[in-house]
Amino acid sequence: MHRRLALLAVGLALGLLSIAAIAAAADTPPEIPLTLDKNQFQPSEVKVKANTPFVLVVTNKGAKAAEFESKDLRVEKVVPAGKTVNVRIRALKPGTYAFFDDFNKQATGRIVAE
Predict the structure, then answer these.
(1) What pTM was computed for the model?
(2) In terms of CATH architecture, what is 31-113?
(3) Alpha-carbon distance 28 to 52, whole Å?
(4) Which of 45, 47, 37, 53 shows the shortest CA–CA distance to 104?
């Protein structure tokens, strides 16, 4: 009898842990790669799902620091030369949101939330 209860308790605990792991994975926002190289963002247009937060994974392949900035998104983040940073973006309403490298204004791009 005690053995059955112990097995039932272990099974229940494992089930709850599995549900918690699935819920945690569902909360992980998608990551979208964005590269800054030769004063250009690649890709220059990023399409995302509207009303869903996401993370831009910005890699600066240049020899100088860059700054990912968007007045539309109210975000700015310095990206050191040769480094990668994550930029968390809130859920966006459908629309187009411009971004640029504040240290080099010719590097521009946009996010399209659909």
Answers:
(1) 0.74
(2) Sandwich (2.60)
(3) 11
(4) 37
Q: CB of 111 within 8 A of CB of 92? A: yes
66, 69, 73 from 107: Cα distances, Å:
10, 11, 17
Tokens representing residue 52 in the block: 């869903």
Provide the residue ranges of all domains of the chain, joining segments of one domain with +: 31-113
Q: Which two tokens stand for residue 61?
A: 């392949």
Per-residue tens of pLDDT for the chain, all 114 residues:
666 665 655 555 555 555 655 545 557 899 999 999 998 999 999 999 999 999 999 999 999 999 999 999 999 999 999 999 999 999 999 999 999 998 888 899 999 999
